[in-house]
Design brief:
This protein is mainly alpha-helical. It has 5 helices and no strands. This is Reverse transcriptase. It comes from Phytophthora fragariae.
């Protein structure tokens, strides 16, 4: 079907003939379809957008309600004591210190090598053409 002026009103859109999804897919694949109109529930979309705006506003209010000092305190070493990773974090505390260090941290002897399967020699990576 070819239309010189696509319909703009809902009643005009809904009065158009219906096509099967198979024919639609075939015509779309063959390049016979130049324009697609999607009907949507504007009121529902507006309502969901308002709910999303409200959730974002509540998140911003909750974040601004906490002072910077409170957020910093939540990330202190004392607050991490209950974490199961506390010992590991303390061991590597010089990696992310509170103050910027004047020099690099001490070498801990960690080798940056990953074996995907124990005993494999290397992982083959190939550059694929784009």
């Amino acid at each position: 079907m070819k239309l010189e002026n696509p319909p703009t009103l809902e009643s005009e859109l809904t009065s158009l003939p219906v096509t099967s999804w198979r024919r639609f897919a075939r015509d779309l694949h063959d390049g016979h379809i130049e324009q697609i109109c999607i009907l949507s529930d504007v009121e529902r979309m507006k309502c969901e957008a308002e709910e999303l705006k409200q959730l974002v506003a509540e998140g911003v209010d909750a974040l601004s309600a906490k002072s910077k000092k409170e957020r910093f305190h939540e990330q202190s070493w004392d607050s991490l004591k209950s974490s199961p990773f506390y010992e590991v974090l303390r061991e590597y505390r010089d990696v992310l210190p509170d103050d910027i260090p004047a020099e690099l941290p001490q070498d801990k002897g960690v080798q940056h090598e990953i074996d995907l399967v124990p005993g494999t020699k290397y992982c083959v990576t190939r550059q694929w053409p784009l």
